[in-house]
Amino acid sequence: MPTSSRVRVGGPPLAGLALLFFASGVSGLMYQVLWLRMLSLVFGVTAYAASTVLASFMAGLALGSLLAGRLADRVRSPLRWFGAIEVGIAISALLTPWGLDAAQTLYGAVHAAVPDHLVALTLARFVCSFLVLLVPTVLMGATLPLVVRSTIVARGVLGPRVGLLYAINAGGAITGAILAGFHLIGDVGLNRTFLVAAGLNLLVGIGAWLLPVRPIDTGDIGDTPDAVTREPEPRAPLPEAGRAHIAEGGAVRTLALVYFGVSGLASLALEVIWFRVLVLFLPATTYAFTTMLATVLGGISAGSLVATRMLRRERDWTRTLALLCLWTSVAVLGSLIVLAGTYAAGWRTSGTVQASIVAILPSALLMGVSFPVAMRVWVGPGDPADPALARRIGVAYAMNMLGAIAGAVLGGFVLLPLAGSRLSLALAASLYLLAGIVLLERSAAARRTWWLALTLVVVFGAAAFALPDPFETALTRRYERGEVALWREEGVQTTVTVHRRPGNVRVMYLDGLHQANDSAPMITLHRQIGHFPMAIHPAPRDVLVIGLGGGATPGAVARHAGATVDVVELSRSVVRGAALFSHVNDDVLRQPNVRLQVSDGRNYLALTTRRYDVITADIIQPQHAGAGLLYSREYFELARRALKDEGVMLQWIGQRAEVEYRLIMRTFLDVFPDATLWNGGTLLVGSTRSLSLDEAAFERKVADVQTQHALASVGLHTFDALLGAFSANADDMRAFVGDGPILTDDHPRIEYHRSLPPSAPETDLSGFVGRGREHLLTRQE
After folding, report:
1. CA distance linking residue 363 with residue 267, whole number of Å
2. I need a labelling partner for 778 at 20 to 30 A (CA). Which of 229, 348, 614, 755 fits?
3. Residue 65 to residue 60: CA distance in whole angstroms
């Protein structure tokens, strides 16, 4: 039973607690980036796999928030529990690599049993990733209720404290995103970044135990030992609107709880949509994604700080939250209008940060203001003696995370494929509009605000009507003048567009980046990637092509007599787009000797039991986000394992900055020590044994008229022509690259290219003149 005696309880210094919660936010975002990347090695980088991992991550946060909400109201020292949990996060996070090994084994078994069953594989991904991340994410979700509960020092300070702590934690998340995305992963690698994040958790945990707890005389607050409060000061009577709000608190608080779910759904859907739109205007690199994420978190942090000052005064918070929702709906639509306008005005790729800020920051700022205000509506003023205070905080945060899971799934799998980016953005914005109208209807001061609400609704309608098409805007500025859009699809995995340039050249773009065109030089290059390994191998039968693109590479391979071709393509939208290049890819997907699988190429190599005579791949630029997984030592090892005894693998290296060229070549040589270089230094060929060329085998190939014409299309019409395309052997390549680092899953240096030292803009390949080609013949058995 509550008592009326005066008790003495403790409260931590706010500055010290803020520093600890900031560091906790830094490590939390680092983990999210690291886990998403590491789990992609197990499940692939398909949109389904990535969303499943993200859903399991957020599910853990939601569960942790619910459990901690109940715990924080019962323990004597929530701050000490927070410290213990931070230590637990560090330990459990460092154990996740062992969990990943177990997940890979389990997922591999499921994949072997039902390789093409999307539902079963998705469920397996969720279960595996949820189990791997369960302990650390549940502990991470527990931190907010415990920290907030430990710092409630008086009735009425809940709102400002939630706003301040939420802002500080979001500020830490910004720092974590920038540190991991721009510096640590590129500079020291994933494993050491893990150690940095875990080290921060340990410091936070120790700091929470060492942070002094000051005794405070509380007055009559009951017998709750965890309450931390000062003597209540006399307060002025609440205004009429505030008294009305308290009278109808039950219904309003329920609406506030619903708002947490709706805002989580809308905000995560918007992140998916914003990124899909931004890559039309900006390079689709890991830095572009990090910039967008930091902008969203920065807006949320700044908005929460604004809310901290707002919440120090009494007002009708239901009305305030309603207006914030209405303004957010308008700002979301404005994000696309402003982005298109600034881009049309000339803020192109050099203005990556500016474009993200002007487009996204206002919406994120309003979202940041809304969260603490909604918490104030849901929890009330926050009485330290309330035995269910932390539980309600935990329920709200869990509801927000569950909504975020739904938003990530709906945004990527439903809205974008079915409605496109423009309509999807409008639908997400309309959720805020609807929430604002419903909340305003419940406000005691609704009548005095309807004129403003109606104005915002009218502005919303006008903005929705004027919403620009991001594709048309990008077409007029990013691509060459005179380009005409022929076809586009905003698919689950990527946005694919096909344009026609002046001169009747068709071009395929993936997320705004050039992928293929049907000009003669480009088609010749793609065909070379297919024909060279087929010419080098004595008798290629089973062939794997990773990536479809415009289809010229697998189309070239499929023309060889007796070859059976497996094509693995990540995006189904690319498959449909390739149909517009049937005139240069020999209608490859209709060929009887071609089998298509829509999947992640690397994941396919990791799970397949098939073995191939030849493995080659469409052109994939290593700087693109996620492409580092297809240039690492581990990837080349998977490819070597999938080769037959005399199998060969071709890797396009192209002509690029010297430091990048040496990294790729050095990595390839690490896995294929007998590698050879071809076609003027642009194609690497790895083999499971020392390569030998058999002239008789070549002549048997060109005896088939179709194969002869195919090889002649890239200048390989004779055996001498093939020998003439030889550039260097392994010894010459090793002498060129020297000692140095290689590309690994842990250290994807080219994808995180800001960490690379400056070098010549293009490699000088004149030294590769084909010395030693005679040794290719003397090794014949």
Report:
1. 9
2. 614
3. 9
